[in-house]
Description:
Blueprint: H1 6-13, E1 19-24, E2 30-35, E3 38-40, E4 43-48, H2 53-60, E5 63-70, E6 77-88, H3 90-104, H4 107-111, H5 116-122, E7 125-138, H6 139-146, H7 150-153
Antiparallel strand pairs: 1-2, 1-5, 3-4, 4-7, 5-6, 6-7
Amino acid sequence: MFELTKDQIREFLKGRLIASIGTENPDGSIHLTAVWYLHEDQFFYVATSSRSRKARNVAARPKASLMVDSRKAGCERGVTASGNAEIITGEGAQELNRRVHLRYMSAAALSDARIGPVFHALDDVTIRLTATSWISWDTGAVDAQLFHGALAAMPGCFLPLGD
């Protein structure tokens, strides 16, 4: 009822937002961390280090969830995708990681000898999440249907987020 359409999800995921990825630790608890991502078709790609907890978790237990949300007061939207995860290595990972990095950093920054090589060395693998389960939300739709637009119409209704 308050979910995004497939087209809205695709458009939303094109945005340059920070995602949170959840993987399962050896003790069954969840490791949750912020990541940069690239979304294409039903796949999410996350550049990371082979030594990171998330990469080690995926190698041992190949499943993950990833949440992307936008927190504009009164107009929050988000998507959570869950499914099978795998580690991509080698040249395939290098190319995917370059594309992930270019979504979040300028080409000039990545060409800088002080910056680009560090990212290239740190992020040596890619996590590929094949989304099999999706959840989305749109508080604008909630406002329209349940509050008849009152939340958006009331200045100061939502308190600001921040540090």
